Every structure is written in structure tokens, then in C-alpha cells.
Amino acid sequence: MSKQSPKSAAVAAAQSLPAMRHLTLDEDQFEDIREALLLGLSLLGEFQERSNVWEVLSSSGTELPSGLQPVDPTSGADDVTLFANALRFIHQFDRNGAAA
């Protein structure tokens, strides 16, 4: 049996909370969540871009200080999907008028 990561356990726990079906947010909270998700997704893209540059330069033989190598801030390849799902939830929440 494989051990579930803390992140996966937290996501599973949050999805199973009945209280989430009755969440109420004011407009400021709603916008703060949306902005935080967009910022995180943007930073993930920035990391990917810098990693690609590092890989191209390294493979071409360019000597680069190891301290400049980008460090992956994510826990796995599914992080973009997690951001997309969270934004989809926020969009659905907004469309249903639940944020007002």
C-alpha cells in the first residue's frame, strides 16, 4: 500500500467536507482567492520558463553556477491541474452567484 502525500491527504479531506457546500465569501475574499491562484499559476509558469533556459544553456555546454539553477517549488506534475481545478471551482462559484 502506498503512503498518501500530505498534500493529497489535505485535498481529499477538503473535498469531503460537507461545510464546503455552504461556503460564503464576500467580494473581497473571493477576489483575494482568485488573485492568489493566478499569482501561483503565474509563478509556476515562470519557474518552467527559467528551467527551460537552464536546460538549454546546460546542454549547450555553457558553464553555469549551480546556485542559479531553478529549484522546483512544486510537489509534482499535477500542480497545474490543481490550480486549474481551483480556478474552475471559483469560476463556478461566481457563476452561481454564491460569492455575493
Folded structure, characterized:
The longest helix is centred in the middle third of the chain and has 33 residues, at 27-59. The chain is mainly α and 100 residues long. The model has no long low-confidence stretch (mean pLDDT 78). The chain is built from three helices and no strands. Helix 2 (27-59) runs antiparallel to helix 3. The protein has helices at 6-15, 27-59, 79-95.
Strand count, sense and barrel status of the largest sheet are: none
Percentage beta strand: under 5%
Overall pLDDT confidence: 78
Radius of gyration: 18 Å
Query: Helices and strands, in N-to-C order?
Result: HHH
Ends apart, CA distance between termini: 44 Å
- Our count of helices gives 3
Low-confidence stretches: none
Q: What's the β-strand tally?
A: 0
Strand pairing plus helix content: what structural class? mainly alpha
Can you summarize this structure?
By secondary structure, this protein is mainly α. It has three helices and no strands.
